[in-house]
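1st attempt posting a full record on here, be nice pls
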Amino acid sequence: MYVGERPLIRYCESLGQVKVKSLPKCKAGEVSVELILFVDQNENLIISAVDSQNRNELPVEFNFFEIYETVGKQMALEAEKFRDE
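the predicted structure (as tokens):
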């Protein structure tokens, strides 16, 4: 997961790595997953994943990098605040 507004991802900051587990075995491109990111009132980042075909929730593992604690929470909150604009 990256944060930043630069056109190339290599110039953005990496907050961590998201791993969706227990994906159904299919050919490449046949699985569609909806990844949901939410910042709650306590500034906690909540990540969930749903199989788009059968709507089953999938287990998610997220490993934060150190930068998330300083930059990521603030930027995620600002993104949520201005989401509708």
